[in-house]
Amino acid sequence: MKLETVIAKRHNKTLYRDGNYCIKVFNEDFKKSDILNEALNQARVEETGLNIPSIIRVTEIDGKWAIISEFIEGKTLSTLMKENPEKKHEYIDMLIDIQIEIQSKKCPLLTKLYDKMNRKIYLADLDANTRFDLHTRLESMPKHNLLCHGDIRPSNIIVTPEGKHYILDWSHATQGNACADAARTYLTFCLQHKDDEAAYYLEKFSEKAGIEKKHLQKWMPIVAASQSVKGNPEEREMLLNWASVVDYE
């Protein structure tokens, strides 16, 4: 494998292209179990029939763990939104349609979203009363088993030149309540200070999915607390503030 053409760089991983392969190379401090779990998530989701890159293999390259998967030629929705700002609502509609398609599937061997959220709330940098309130709220939520991506955002959708979409990054995939997944996407737009996109997304997801906004809003403190545990340091304070809010309007 040739690690010459960099596709993207994150704080703990780098993505390369080598011909028809996409190579995600993780930093040395990345836990082996997390890498293997990501690959297993992706392999399991492949079996649902969704359009996602196929896993080729998991290996070591120069002493670092790497996941090798099919390279998909195209542009992300985030790139398309930057290139065509007048179409941003159209692209958000596409994002929502893809998210609803994901949530129409089931993947029973994935981690349960409820269990993951419970663990994350326990680890969040919040006072004991707030954590108790969040655990109580989570316990009251309907227990569903729908496929949840965990990080649906425009940069995780690639559209090929032929117009076919592919869904990337299944490291956060779980099975659970679709409202939690939608709350995560809404908060992502907010964290990027894209208030118009956030408001439009919330309104249109509610309409397209047939779910009242109040059901999505109830999940927002829970999702914010969960995301704060491994969230970007610059975003953590905002997430912790959201996690402390009783109700969203």
What do these coordinates show?
The protein has 249 residues and is an alpha+beta fold. It is built from 10 helices and 10 strands. It has helices at residues 32-46, 77-83, 88-103, 113-123, 128-140, 178-191, 195-209, 213-217, 220-230, 233-243, and strands at residues 5-9, 13-18, 21-26, 55-61, 64-70, 75-76, 146-148, 157-159, 165-167, 174-176. Strands 1-2-3-5-4 form a 5-stranded antiparallel β-sheet, covered by helices on one side. Strands 6-8-9 form a 3-stranded antiparallel β-sheet. α6 (178-191) runs antiparallel to α7. The longest helix is centred in the middle third of the chain and has 16 residues, at 88-103. The protein is globular. The protein starts with a strand and ends in a 6-residue tail after the last helix.
What distinguishing features does this structure have?
alpha+beta, globular, 3-stranded antiparallel β-sheet, 18% strand, 249 residues, 10 helices
- H/E element sequence: EEEHEEEHHHHEEEEHHHHH
Share of β-strand residues: 15-25%
Order of strands across the widest beta sheet?
1-2-3-5-4
Q: End-to-end span in angstroms?
A: 51 Å
Uncertain residue ranges: none
Task: Report the sheet with the most strands, covering strand number, pairing sense and barrel closure.
Answer: 5 strands, antiparallel
Briefly note the structural class of the backbone: alpha+beta
The count of strands amounts to: 10
